[in-house]
Amino acid sequence: MKQSKTFIPTLREIPADADVKSHQLLLRAGFIRQNTSGVYSYLPLATKVLKKIEQIVREEMEAIDAVELLMPALQQAELWQETGRWEAYGPELMRLKDRHNRDFALGATHEEVITSLVRDEVKSYKKLPLTLYQIQNKFRDEKRPRFGLLRGREFVMKDAYSFHATRESLDETYNDMVKAYTNIFTRLGLNFRAVIADSGSIGGKDTHEFMVLSEIGEDTIAFSDESSFAANIEMAEVNVEYSHSNEDMKELEKVSTPDQKSIDEIVEFLKVSPESCIKSLVFNVDDELVVVLARGDHEINDIKLKNALDAQSVELADDKVIFDLLGSHVGSLGPVKLPINVKVIADHAIKSIRNGVCGANEDGFHYINVNPGRDFAIDRFEDLRFIQVGDPSPDGKGTIKFAEGIEVGHVFKLGTTYSDSMKATFLDENGRAQSFIMGCYGIGVSRLVAAVAEQFQDSYGFVWPKQIAPYDIHLISVNEKDEAQKNLTEETYKLLQSYRYDVLYDDRKERAGVKFADADLIGLPVRVTIGKKASEGILEVKFRQSGETFEWAKEELVDRLNNFFHAE
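Structure tokens predicted for Proline--tRNA ligase:
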């Protein structure tokens, strides 16, 4: 492709509204342009990268017998109402009405559509297992679109769905999909980890996220420094043996703590350690008020709380509700002398507290010498806190460290969550109706463009991996007015094309410095420059990743390039 004929609007200045490097470079190098908040046009360079990523995805999906189809982006409300997600999904679901006042949604995900399709067409266990996938634009009304393609309101996604007669069959496909995802992200050259995750609004129990390690990641990964264990911090189990003090229990005492509300303030005021303090929070759990306890140096993980109580909704109660229940405000709450009907759930660390400190449910007062069991009752203990750096790894190997990550893939075992609610059944080998057992598997294809862009760059621009670079080679003629240079460039262009190389030929009437700056910004794997030695048949070849530059005779160009592009 001649550069004068394509559309690559590069920028010299860093866009003011772009916060992260990948977003800045995608704009500056002419890959994308914003149409409105969270919505982008993919210009020719980005489109080529997208297609190459999609091809890798397709190859790995087909390798595990997944079959491609394409479902509508416009989805009727009735399907979402069957599963209850029309109300439960929340404001991220983009809703609209047609001219007949019928409700529709723009597809945020396709569990309902695919389940209805298979429900209508697959009647026997003999047609199972079945895995179907698509690559399609999705729509979610993000409250805060940010970081360019990393969090948008319209994005490209690969979503796959599998249907099974048995749990064992689901497990097999799930493991195949994990391997396929691992292959995809490895082929893209990404630094990633598969981590234990929460299923969120999708549903189901077993789930893993694939996280690309990045300083701008919106998720925190807890991982072992000695094993392959990795989990989203929301899901990382805490496996700590807490030491128990043999100190004699002291008499419970209420003390004045005027204007001391936070753990840090109480620790300083009473000269105690955070480990001896009991943090009391009131949560609204499916419309029931529950007091949740954690040690002062720990934080309650509401995802763990939700899972432990098998709840649909968990959120902190507001101050008025708390005051009506306990007669005090946040900062003075505690588990002693609670109303008799209030349930108390505690993190395991609370067991180790001896002669501790907690709020007295009276503003400006706390109890000291508090002991669980003696001074207050606990309905049940659960793992409720966030894991911390330095905690032992849940698999018993090494200790926990943290890293930031960008989620690029997610796999779920849905079970019968959707097939039960939508009455999607098949006849088993005994002729009995059974609900389909399902899996769900997603990859953010357009998000991958940004994730790769975030990892593969330097101070000059992109350094695209050769497997997904928009073009293989950037061919530059230093001086188009020089006959020898122009002729050799045209000859080289045709030669490279004949060997199936995808070449971007910079034939623009621009200064050499502009062409070189744009070439570095765009970041193709190889730059071939034809300059003053054109009359001798000599070309300059620069490899973008290493920065190495060579002078090669035109006769040896193809063989040397073949060695580079075909090397593993």
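The chain has a mean pLDDT of 94.
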